[in-house]
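// run 5 | inverse folding | seed 20
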């Protein structure tokens, strides 16, 4: 038995040593085994427990939730280019300074300024029915008299093209089934231009959601170059399905649409920045982020107030514990994410010359619900290290490391080779409230935000404090 035990114990060690030495190489090609890095990471267990305790049971318990509630209750929603967004930036700038964080500053950018205006949609045939709608970002408006036209209901772009001869002069209603956000959102993004190509005068798109209580969802849409720009809005799942049923019965549907939407000149705005400056390599950066703008409905509590709050809280937790990592942890609260990552793109252009010093970029923009772990993009060597980092979080059961970090505001960094991580939560209900009037503090949980904050702080601190940067 002793001989067998020795063989069974040594074989995994031999294999581990081989894998470790082949997996982890520093940029200068010096070999450093993953086993050594694993031992280094395991040395952070006590610090990890202190961070978790402070966030979940200690004096900082519920702080991220309370801060978010105070912020959203005071400011409300914050669409790109609006006065409310500028109030939000000033609010956050002052709050970060008051919190004692370092290098708090604003970096100026230019952002889109689209205004919704008054809008309405009424089905006048076969009966009178007022529909709930939300115009889509960058949509043109109607004339003051509006548009009254017959409706053509389709379930797909393919059906629209096959019935293109029927669409001229009509309002196209898309009743596409929800498959996934990533796939179905194409109807919101391109529905107007596809309808315009076949002569439609407007488009109404079934909201991109798996669940509805007669709640329309807004979002940005993109006109295609060289295609006429027609008004476009989202309607509810219920109204889209109702019109589809009416159309199948062969009844004529007529809708009167009025939209006061307009695009104003680009506005001046800011990305908001705060740091804990590194003790040994202050020029090297772990970046935490969420976006400060929202849509002009609800409170923007979930999208993306939660990501803002836990990124701020991560810095506060480390500050409270007197933890200063070797590298700088920088929080950036992006502006104008909703129109397509506009503030983040300008930040990247301004800072990409220093890209070799960006160690890890992190973004939370899919809700701060019960955390499961991270989604990560990076080299195999970096993934092996990150897998060890999340193992520190066993106490709060957030050890998952999934493929493909995501986030509009960090994707350009990841495409350029910088390791990237996004918060992975139990987000099954995220798209129930996404871009709706329902995005209120009611969907937030202080307990869940405590856990998200703890995860965010632990990962940022450990990665920023390791002897070496993550390999690319």
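// decoded
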């Amino acid at each position: 038995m002793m001989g067998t035990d020795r063989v069974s114990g040594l074989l995994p060690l031999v294999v581990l040593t081989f894998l470790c030495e082949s997996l982890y190489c520093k940029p200068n090609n010096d070999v450093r085994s993953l086993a050594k890095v694993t031992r280094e990471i395991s040395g952070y267990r006590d610090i990890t427990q202190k961070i978790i305790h402070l966030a979940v049971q200690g004096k900082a318990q519920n702080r991220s939730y309370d801060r978010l509630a105070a912020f959203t209750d005071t400011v409300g929603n914050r669409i790109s280019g609006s006065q409310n967004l500028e109030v939000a930036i000033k609010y956050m700038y002052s709050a970060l300074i008051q919190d004692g964080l370092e290098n708090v500053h604003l970096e100026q950018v230019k952002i889109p300024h689209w205004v919704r205006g008054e809008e309405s949609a009424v089905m006048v045939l076969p009966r009178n029915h007022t529909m709930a709608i939300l115009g889509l970002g960058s949509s043109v408006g109607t004339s003051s008299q509006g548009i009254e036209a017959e409706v053509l209901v389709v379930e797909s772009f393919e059906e629209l093209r096959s019935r293109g001869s029927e669409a001229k002069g009509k309002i196209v209603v898309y009743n596409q089934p929800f498959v996934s956000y990533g796939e179905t959102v194409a109807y919101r993004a391109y529905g107007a231009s596809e309808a315009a190509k076949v002569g439609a005068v407007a488009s109404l798109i079934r909201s991109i959601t798996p669940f509805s209580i007669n709640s329309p969802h807004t979002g940005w849409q993109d006109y295609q170059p060289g295609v006429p720009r027609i008004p476009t809005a989202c309607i509810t799942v219920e109204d889209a399905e109702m019109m589809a049923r009416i159309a199948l019965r062969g009844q004529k549907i007529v809708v009167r649409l009025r939209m006061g939407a307009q695009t104003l000149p680009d506005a001046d705005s800011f990305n908001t920045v705060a740091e804990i400056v590194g003790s040994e390599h202050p020029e090297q950066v772990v970046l935490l982020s969420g976006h400060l703008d929202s849509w002009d409905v609800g409170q923007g509590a979930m999208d993306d107030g939660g990501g803002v709050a836990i990124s701020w809280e991560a810095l506060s937790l480390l500050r409270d514990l007197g933890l200063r990592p070797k590298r700088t942890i920088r929080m950036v609260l992006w502006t104008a994410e909703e129109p397509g990552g506009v503030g983040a793109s300008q930040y990247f252009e301004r800072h990409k010359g220093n890209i070799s010093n960006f160690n890890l970029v992190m973004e939370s923009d899919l809700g701060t619900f019960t955390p499961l772990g991270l989604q990560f993009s990076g080299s195999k060597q970096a993934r092996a290290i990150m897998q060890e980092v999340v193992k520190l979080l066993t106490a709060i059961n957030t050890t998952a490391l999934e493929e493909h970090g995501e986030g509009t505001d960090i994707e350009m960094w990841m495409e350029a080779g910088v390791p990237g991580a996004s918060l992975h939560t139990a987000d099954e209900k995220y798209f129930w409230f996404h871009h709706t009037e329902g995005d209120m503090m009611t969907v937030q949980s202080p307990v869940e935000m405590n856990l998200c904050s703890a995860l965010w702080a632990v990962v940022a601190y450990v990665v920023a404090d390791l002897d070496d940067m993550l390999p690319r």
